[in-house]
Each structure stands twice: as C-alpha cells, then as structure tokens.
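Posting this for the archive.
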Amino acid sequence: MGARGSRRAEVEQRFGRVDILVHAAGIYPMATLDEMSTEQWRRVMAVNLDAHLVGARHIVPLMRKAGGGAIVAIGSDAVGMVTPPGMDFSHYIASKMGVVGLVRALASELAADNIIVNAVHPGFTDTEGASAMPNEQKAQVYMQQAIKRLGTPADIAGPVAFLTSDDARFVTGQTLVVDGGWLRL
C-alpha cells in the first residue's frame, strides 16, 4: 500500500465514516511582487490551494464508500475585490482564485458520486490571523461593510453548516460570500 493508501486507511480507522470535509487552512503574508520570493509564492500556494487537493484525495474515497458527502472549501472575499494600495498579497489572491476553480471542477467531477463541493468566502473575520492588525485598521475595513462589525467564526460556521446539510443537496460548484456586505461595493 502506498503512502496515500496508508494515510487513507489511517483516516478511515480513526474516523470510520466520513461525510463532510471542511478545509480552512490559509496564510496571507504581505509582500509586493518585488519583495516576494518564489519560495514564499510556493508556500502560499501549498497551504492555500494545494492542501485542498490533498485533503480531497484522502477523503473522497471514504465519501464514495459512504455513498456521498459534502466538501466546503474556505476561500476569501479577496477574490472579488480590487486590492487597495498597501495590501500587497497577489500570491494570496491567486491561491484563493485557484480554490474557486478547484471547487467548480470537483463539483463536476464528483457529482456522480453524490458528493457536493462548494466554497465559503469569508470577509475580514476576527481570527488569530487578524489579531495583529490594529483596531483602527480593522474598523476601516468593517466600516465599509453593510454590517458594521468584524465577522466572527460563528458567522462563517452557519453558512458552512448549511452547505454540508441535507438542505443543500442540490447546491454544488457555488461560492457563498459571507462578508457583512463588503463586496456589494
């Protein structure tokens, strides 16, 4: 048994049946084109995009065995914005745009297996990654939203729960933006 097969067996032994995969890893170091190294680009792509593929490769066979499932990839509303000056993360945006493409492709590929694949694209959310930003900068972001507050992990969990529920069994290949109305601009 190859490395992939042994990891899959380990997951199956640990969890038994797998019906849901929510993939939420992401990093967003700031770097201009001139500052960004190829290694930094590859690391962002590995965490933000490649890991979605790796996770699906391990979990989809278990979902097929279970008769279906739901995959939700966590992207970013940054894919729909025009990046303001000073927010230098082209590698981040490129990786999250790749998530959109992967979700759409996997939705087509896995539909026959009764596996739905969608994405949730949060806006600025009060997470560990956002904790280093000064409150004044956070307010500058959320004051542009229709809902004038920082998003919370619970704000993201509800839409993810919907997309993994039986109520969403006819929803696949979609991106749900959950950003307090920021992208309405």
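The domain at 16-180 is CATH 3.40.50.720 (Rossmann fold). Helices lie at 3-15, 38-66, 90-110, 135-142, 153-163.
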